[in-house]
Amino acid sequence: MLAPPVRCLLDTPGLILWLTGAGVSAESGIPTFRGKEGYWQVGSRNYQPEEMATWAAFQEMPEEVWAWYLYRRGICRGAEPNAAHRALAAAERRRGERFLLVTQNVDGLHLRAGNTLDRTYQIHGNIDFMRCSRECLPAPVPMPEGVDVAWGKGRPITERELQALKCPSCGALARPHVLWFDESYDEANFRFESSIDAAQRASLVVVVGTTGATSLPMHIGTIAAQRGIPMVVINPEPNPFSALVQRTGQGAFLCGTAGQWVPEIVDALPSA
What we know:
It is a single chain. This protein is of the alpha/beta class. It folds into 2 domains: 4-30 and 81-124 and 184-268, Rossmann fold (3-Layer(aba) Sandwich); 40-78 and 141-178, no CATH class. Helices cover 40% and strands 18% of the residues. The relative contact order is 0.19.
């Protein structure tokens, strides 16, 4: 049950910025792919996710990179939104323009649960979209119908599917719409400036299921701490965000899972 001080934090007329990470989707059965599930064999070598998820790897072995991403997409499409996803969709309906979701997750489950693109910044992309590898298009496009999502691990990409993964404008091979390890955030693809602006306007930040291993989420937390606005941090273990709360004395750390706390927080939110 939410303690009265936490309920007081939620009673804000301003913008509430929600920041979500892999811990939200873990409860839908999606692995983080940092463990053995993420390894991909090419010939006799096992590649780790940090090696496959790069522009350099795509330039060297684009078919293998696509095969790995389509395997990942099959897992994501086989998962369903959980209680935390559904609660966040309800929070958007309740709060309207006073709600904003910044998510690191590429699985698309927030959108499938009912959150809108206008109020959801997918700062690491979405595995259900692709974009031209030559950047000839101004925006990502949905994955084509001709691409199978029921992939077994290690299954090679077919010629038919490779042809479907072409840019509809120039015919170049498309690439997954995700932020790779050797790339930087930008506004056009990943809403970098918009996310920073939201952090500078928010009256409350709620951080759910992320350890802050990437730079933009931690930047958002740091901005909140510097501005002196509270953060509510939900995670099974203490993390850099809960350390910020402890240092500033602004906010609360709720030890537990997204499914445990997010629906309760949303139920306690005042309407816009």
